[in-house]
Amino acid sequence: MPEQPTAAQKKSAAKKTAVPKQAAAKKATVPAKKAAAKKTPAAQSPAAKATAKKAAPAKTTAKKAVEKKAVAKKTAPEPATAAKATAEKATAKKTAAKKTTAKKAPAKKAAATKATATKAVATKAVATKATTKKAVAKKATTAKAAATKATTTKATATKAATTKPPAKKAPTKKATAKKATAGKVSAGKASAGKVTAASAQTVPPEMEIAVSPAVGAADRDRLLDGTHHNPHSVLGAHPVPGGIAFRAFRPYALSVTVVAGEVRAELQDDGEGFFSGLLPLREVPEYRLLVEYEGTVLDTEDAYRFLPTLGDLDLHLIGEGRHEELWTALGAHPMTHQGVTGTRFSVWAPNALGVRVAGTFNFWDGTGHVMRSLGSSGVWELFLPDIGEGELYKFEITRPDGSKTMRADPLARRTEVPPATSSVITSSRYEWGDAEWLARRAQAPAHEAPFSVYEVHLPSWRPGLTYRQLAEQLPRYVKDLGFTHVELMPVAEHPFGGSWGYQVTGFYAPTARLGTPDDFRFLVDSLHQAGIGVLMDWVPAHFPRDDWALAEFDGRPLYEHADPLRAAHPDWGTLEFDYGRNEVRNFLVANALYWCEEFHIDGLRVDAVASMLYLDYSREPGQWTPNEHGGRENLDAVAFLQEMNATVYRRVPGVVTIAEESTAWDGVTRATHHKGPSGFGGLGFGLKWNMGWMHDSLQYMSHEPVYRKYHHGEMTFSMVYAYSENYVLPISHDEVVHGKGSLVSKMPGDWWQQRANHRAYLAFMWAHPGKQLLFMGQEFAQGAEWSEAHGPDWWLLDPGYGAEPEHRGVRDLVRDLNTVYRATPALWRLDTEPAGFEWVVGDAADDNVLAFLRLDPEGNPLLSVSNFAPVVRQDYRLGVPEDVPAWHEAVNTDAACYGGSDVTNPDPVKPEAQPWHGRPASIRLTLPPLSTVWLRPA
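== 1,4-alpha-glucan branching enzyme GlgB ==
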């Protein structure tokens, strides 16, 4: 007969753990590991945090007995257990020590058999043959021992050591049975704790020598410092000898419990936010974590149990600089991964020692959200379950010198409203309604179609309006005036409003000042449905030095060039991109595609191209280094622009790219595979701003009429090079700010003459070969120069204002110019071919008169005559084609309805057989003062 428990044994009980008290089952104690054959006391860890060593016996996983009728009968300890075996946290209750005979016991008279308690669901269950497999519902009988109807759980008994004594003798406690409850259990370092499950897995023999599940000291330090490159290899669940080790890093948590099906195991608190435990499982289960904080319990997935969300192809393309949809790989993306909803964070930071995610979801403490490095790509990634749209975030980057910096996401698709700088998790649910527009826009290239552009600074066009409010007014206004396109000054996020958007920090996010990204989509969609194309200023030339944005992003020059002389932009105090680096070039090319594909932008006007093309741009000798050929061309920038244009035109049919390029660089709008005299292929743009025409023509108009004859060439010189590129004639924001005055204020004379010059100039511009661009406010002759603080002076169009008719008249002229322009192919069909233009008289400098013909492919003409003198010229003879029977005025800028003196040619003008200006016929016109007249065949 086995020894009866003494009084001391009955009184000894382990410290109770926090478990529910509702369960009616009793917990049967499993024999201790490696119990000595000669009744050697089993060594037991004195504290719950003791590390389990292979040679150190520890308490075994106890069974949780779940009885149907909540009646526990007497249990009989097997003789395989060591006498006086120690089991912590067990309370003795009606323990009847009866001798039971183990069937088929192992030979060699081992005092403790190698036994794995089986999972048995049966009535009258008794001890059966020791086995490592689960026994299902076997009815067995042993001599003199019987158990009442009970459902038992899995229990694991480790190998019994028959000869080797414990490696360390620790104070032991005599086994006492304790009430078992169905609550959570505590998984210590050396054991799985008190497992409460009806269907736990057993551990194969080769895994039975347990190891410590705790995070090692080196990994622990790196995780705390934020310099761990692969936290997923440490945290989460991992197979180890003895079962599955669970490790969690949850700063500020009071406890962490693993929940896998019906298994609940409280992990050991290892201090500093680390928790660990070893569960006797065969393989890693699906599990969740219950994380207890002060005042709350968080039920969540473990972020460190997920596979990477980026594949090898993504990483390969990023490294090659060829990921054309980079915005789908990097940034923050709400998604479902391995069946779990959450957000994938990824960022390129190859020089970082470590990267963590901080945001509103972790109270801006990224300590517990360490990202992993994906090989040699420089990309860091982390999937955070249960995190969704609207959360703010940044990346906490540990620099190579060990210092830390908080950075906004370079590929954030939404940002906070400036001056706040955080990135915002977002995804689009917008449903487009512009399919008809997209199908139609590719029917003709931009240089062979009408292209009249209204340039807008959205925040100041109607100050205070959001994207959706602008969508109610802007399309209607632009359509009424007849423009074919709007050009939006930079929409991408920028911290300083005074930069007008040209110092970008959020290249993938529309500015939050006016609404959400989907709100901006709504504006673009509304313009398209009104038949208006949308161009956008795009700034790949430079970026500001803000310490939360791109500058030295991961502690070293990354997006900017490593050479300080190459990196610093001398004019604006900004940094230039390193176009020679694959990933940087990819960042910009993909950004161009992003705006065209995600927001249906119809064209990109690329800012400051000249500053990109020349190494010595705004630099003195000694401040720049020649290229490999000894020249001043930035070969990396050339290659980038060629790649960008080729990629955009290949992927997005119907778009146009426009270069703001102020030099005589050869082949800006030539195809990239066609080499010019300089040996370079073309840059591949669709159109180029004609900065020379703009400068020369405004210079001419600024002179008093009496002096204009000395500057006549400034109005004609543009035709010398008009067909060298595909040009846009820009009167942009740059010409009406910083003391330059508005367009009408540049004109000489009194107010009447200023407006007359203004009208005549606009009609000359619309008739000149090239497309047109006019900045907001100039369409109604605003007198003050533009300010982003208050926008156009709309009050000038208030009917209550005395001079309102004069301003409204100019706007009416712009409407009529656009109407006639769009209806007259001669004004746009052959803009880039010499066959579309013929001088009638270009040398009448003394008269301040310019006259020319515009022709369409069928030879249909439009005659434009400008008189830039403040006098009426009666019977002014002009040579014309003889095959036109009569001409009539299509536009006269001196008409009374536009605010002019109403000197017109009301009747059709018939040609005379008198040769003039080298032509067989001529007409006599009355030329109004300071005016431009358009005539078409009657």
